[in-house]
Amino acid sequence: MANVTVIGAQWGDEGKGKIVDWLAIKADVVVRFQGGHNAGHTLVVGDQTYKLSLLPSGIVRGTLSVIGNGVVFDPWHFRDEVAKLTGQGVDINPQNLQVAENAPLILPFHRDLDAMREEAAGAGKIGTTGRGIGPAYEDKVGRRSIRICDLAHLDDLEPQLDRICAHHDALRAGFGQPPIDRQRLLDDLWDIAAFVLPFAKPVWLTLNQAKKRGDRVLFEGAQGVLLDVDHGTYPFVTSSNTIAGTASGGSGLGPSSVGFVLGIVKAYTTRVGAGPFPTELEDATGQRLGERGHEFGTVTGRKRRCGWFDAVLVRQSAAVSGITGIALTKLDVLDGFETLKICTGYTIGDQTYDYLPPHAADQARAVPIYEEMPGWQETTAGARSWADLPAQAIKYVRRIEELIECPVALVSTSPEREDTILVRDPFAD
Ligand code: GDP
Ligand code: IMO
Ligand code: MG
Q1: What pLDDT shows up at residue 429?
Q2: Which of 76, 129, 171, 358 has the fewest CB atoms within 10 Å, measured from its CB?
C-alpha cells in the first residue's frame, strides 16, 4: 500500500495544507492524527481560499476525511468550521467526514486554563494559540477526559464529571476562579452532541478496511517537528508528538502504514509564539521575508517571526521523523534577494555544534554559522516545472538537499494548488 504521511519539518506553517490538498487527488482517505484546532492550514484553489483548523484538508476535494483519536476535538469549533466550509460550497456529511469515537474533547475550561496559565507566566509564556490544546492533552494522559463516545451516554456522565471537575476546580481556585458550572456544561454537551454524533465512528475500523482494499491513505500532520513535545524546543512546543510515527497511534492503523514520509519545509524559517530561533532576523531582511511571504498566523493573526533557512534543524527533524523526501515550499518568497544565507552549524559558548542540544538556555544562546549563496533576480513564482527555475534557484535547492541529507520530492512556488513542481511522486514510492 502506497501511503503518504505529511508532516511539518520546522515550527509549523510550512504549507502542509497546500501540499495535502494537492496530493489528495491521489488519495482515497485523508487523516488528521494529532493536534487540534491550533492548526491553521490554508488552501488556495482558483479564486477561493479555504482556511482549515480541525478538518482534514482532503475535505475540500470531497475525499473521505478522518479525524483520528490522537486529535483533541473541540465540538463547538467543529460545528463552526463545518458551517464555514459548507458556506463556501464544500459538501460535508457523515459519509465523507468521520471523527474517532475515542478522541478526547476540548471543553471550555481547557481554554480558560490555557489563557490563565499564559497570563500568569508573564514573560515566560509559551505564546500558545489559546485554544485549550495543552490542558486537553493533560486530561487525556491523566485519564480524566470526556471523549466523543461519552456524548452518546450523557445520562451517565456524573462520575466522569466528578473526576474532571475535582481536578479543574482545584486548579481554578488557585487562579481565583469560580468552580465549573456543571449544569451549564452538561446542557451545552447535550446541545452539541446531536450535531457531532452522526460523524462519530470507529475510524480505526474504517481505516483498516481501507487498508484491506488497498486504498491509499494520506496522513496530514499539524504543527511541525520543532514543536514536538519530545523532539522540539521544549518547553516552547505544543503538547502532542508531531513526528510521522504519531500517524499510527493517532489513527489506529499500524506503523507499517505510515508509508512515504513527506516533510514540508519552507525555503526559509518562521516561528509564531515564543522560544529559541537561532536564525531569526530582527532587521529589514526579516521584515522583507515576512512581507513577501505574508507571514501572519492563520489561527491567531499574529505576525510570524522570520529568518534564514536552518539546515541544522531540518536535518535533525528529518532524522528524528524518518523523512523520506521533502516538499520545499515558498521558494518564490526568496526571489530578488542578492544573497541568501543558510545555517550549517552553531556556536554555543566556546563549542560548535552540528545539531541543536536540548537545553533551553543553550538553544537560546546558539549563534548560527552561515554559508552564503548568491540569490536570483528572475521570478520563480508560479513555476510548474523544474525547467522553469533559474539556475541559481536550482543550486539553492540542491544545496539544501545536500545539507539536510534528504531529497526533494516537490517544490511549491505560490499559494495556488497547481503551482507545484513534481520531482518524485510520493505515492509512487
Ligand atoms: P500549514 O499550517 O503548514 O498548512 O501552512 P499555513 O497555511 O499556515 O501557512 C502557509 C502559507 O503560505 C499559506 O498562506 C499558504 O497559502 C502559503 N503558501 C503555501 N505554499 C506557498 C508557496 O509555495 N509560495 C507562497 N508564496 N505561499 C505559499
Ligand atoms: P500548523 O498546523 C505554527 C505553536 C504556538 C505556540 C506553541 C504551543 O498551522 O502548522 P498550542 O496552542 O499548541 O499549545 O501552542 O505551538 N503552534 C503553531 N505554530 N503552526 C501551527 O500549526 C501551530 N500550532 C501550535 O504558536 O508557540
Ligand atoms: Mg498553519
Answers
A1: 75
A2: 358
Ligand 2 centroid to 233 CA: how many Å?
12
Rounded to two decimals, what is the model's pTM? 0.97
Nearest C-alpha to atom 15 of ligand 2 is from which residue?
128
Q: Ligand 1 mean position to 425 CA, how many Å?
A: 20
CA 151 – CA 192 distance, rounded (Å): 9
The DSSP H or E segment spanning 409 is: strand 408-412
Residue 398 pairs in a beta bridge with: none
Tell me, yes or no, if 13 is annotated catalytic: yes
226 lines ligand 2 (CB under 6 A): no
Ligand 2 centroid to Cα of residue 384, in Å, is: 30
Q: Are the CB atoms for 97 and 30 separated by under 8 Å?
A: no
Q: Whose CA is nearest to atom 15 of ligand 1?
A: 415
Q: Which of 37, 41, 110, 168 is catalytic?
A: 41
373 vs 396: CA distance, rounded Å: 8
Cα dihedral sign, 213-216-222-227: positive
Q: pLDDT digit string (tens) for 364-399? A: 999 999 999 999 999 999 999 999 999 999 999 999
Alpha carbon distance 69, 268 (integer Å): 33
Q: Which residues of the chain fall below pLDDT 70?
A: 1
Instruction: Tell me how far apart the alpha carbons of residues 102 and 99 are, in angstroms, rounded to a whole number.
Output: 9
Strand-pairing partners, residue 64, are 29
Residue owning the nearest CA to atom 17 of ligand 1: 415
Q: Which ligand is nearest to the CA of 300?
A: 2
Of 357, 341, 326, nearest to 224 by C-alpha is 326
